[in-house]
């Protein structure tokens, strides 16, 4: 058995009773940070494990749940700092929610033109292709979120569900769907009739590039899934298709898929979503590559770019 002094940082009302003395059933040389979180949650049920961030006094970096107290410098009677991270929601819930937006918005605008465009729209082959590609993309993302992805963290702050959903519901939902299913892109529109965008071969080539990118993206997601056993937060260096050139080929292939949609349609909204999404994925890829290099050091392949082969 061991005891710890837990002090609080931040202005959360859940931390008004701190500092507290906490008793652990295990000695400090075998007790983990996860044991401390569990004991805190038992004492303060509203401060459930996922809401807690534990760190050493004078530091802001969170301690890993599997870290043994003694190895972090904490002995019997030592002190840890807790911060309330606020209400949490599972990563899976966030992903399912954000991808559901386009799956609802696109069918509504596509199938109810009289409501939104004040008249009927004879859909062109281009509109049919884009509609199918968008629906299949987000249906794939939903299935991946439920059956493929394994997450290193169980939850994220609840506020993120609104921020993330805004990106998908607005940019790839309303902003993309409204103009592209309207009269400008209809079968009898001068923008479509007799142009490259009515050419079946052009549409087929763009759709083929999109399909290649989507299947490649799925392949990399399966590779990442197989690196992490169920219920584990284990990290390993990914290898195989796509990973020989970049650290995050899943992001690269997703960018290619949306570029195919944007180029095929010529829609400013599609290009806007592609640009914003690609910039965000490049930022994520850079962070993930830094994390890989930090975790694996010289073992990590130095020639890999973060996301775009040979460039970035």
Provide structural commentary.
The protein has 2 domains: 2-86, Ubiquitin-like (UB roll) (Roll); 89-299, no CATH class. The chain has 8 helices and 6 strands. Helices cover 50% and strands 10% of the residues. It has helices at 33-43, 91-111, 113-117, 125-147, 159-180, 200-227, 249-265, 268-296, and strands at 2-9, 20-24, 52-56, 79-84, 88-90, 155-157. With 312 residues, it is α+β, with helices and mostly antiparallel strands. The strands form 2 sheets. It has a 4-stranded mixed β-sheet with strand order 2-1-4-3, with helices on one face. 28% of the residues are buried. The protein starts with a strand and ends in a 16-residue tail after the last helix. Helix 2 runs antiparallel to helix 4. The longest helix is centred in the C-terminal third of the chain and has 29 residues, at 268-296. The protein is elongated.
Helix content: 40-55%
Structural class call reads alpha+beta
Order of helices and strands: EEHEEEHHHEHHHH
Mean pLDDT: 93
Gyration radius from CA atoms, angstroms: 25 Å
**Which geometry do the CA atoms define?**
elongated
Topology readout:
Blueprint: E1 2-9, E2 20-24, H1 33-43, E3 52-56, E4 79-84, E5 88-90, H2 91-111, H3 113-117, H4 125-147, E6 155-157, H5 159-180, H6 200-227, H7 249-265, H8 268-296
Helix pairs in contact: 2-4, 2-5, 4-6, 5-8, 6-7, 7-8
Keywords for this structure?
312 residues; alpha+beta; Ubiquitin-like (UB roll); 2 domains; elongated; NADP
């Amino acid at each position: 058995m061991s005891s710890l002094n837990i002090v609080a940082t931040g202005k959360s009302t859940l931390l008004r009773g701190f500092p507290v003395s906490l008793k652990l059933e295990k000695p400090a040389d075998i007790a983990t940070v996860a044991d401390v979180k569990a004991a805190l949650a038992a004492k303060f049920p509203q401060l459930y494990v996922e809401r807690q961030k534990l760190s050493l006094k004078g530091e802001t970096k969170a301690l890993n749940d599997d870290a043994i107290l003694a190895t972090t410098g904490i002995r019997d009677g030592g002190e840890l700092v807790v911060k309330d991270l606020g209400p949490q929601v599972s990563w899976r819930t966030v992903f399912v929610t954000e991808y559901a937006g386009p799956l609802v918005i696109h069918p509504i605008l596509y199938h109810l033109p009289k409501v939104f465009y004040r008249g009927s729209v004879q859909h062109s082959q281009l509109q049919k292709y884009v509609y199918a590609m968008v629906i299949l993309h987000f249906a794939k993302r939903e299935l991946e979120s439920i059956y493929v992805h394994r997450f290193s963290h169980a939850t994220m702050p609840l506020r993120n569900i609104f921020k993330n959903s805004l990106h998908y519901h607005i940019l790839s939902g309303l902003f993309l769907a409204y103009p592209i299913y309207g009269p400008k892109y209809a079968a009898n529109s001068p923008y479509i009739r007799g142009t490259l965008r009515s050419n079946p071969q052009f549409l087929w080539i763009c759709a083929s590039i999109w399909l290649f990118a989507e299947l490649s993206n799925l392949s990399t997601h399966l590779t990442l899934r197989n690196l992490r056993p169920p219920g584990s937060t284990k990290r390993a260096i990914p290898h195989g298709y796509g990973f020989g050139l970049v650290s995050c080929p899943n992001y690269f292939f997703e960018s290619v898929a949306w570029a195919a949609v944007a180029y095929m349609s010529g829609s400013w909204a599609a290009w806007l979503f592609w640009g914003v999404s690609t910039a965000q994925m490049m930022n994520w890829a850079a962070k993930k590559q830094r994390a890989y290099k930090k975790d694996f050091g010289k073992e990590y392949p130095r020639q890999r770019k973060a996301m775009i082969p040979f460039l970035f």
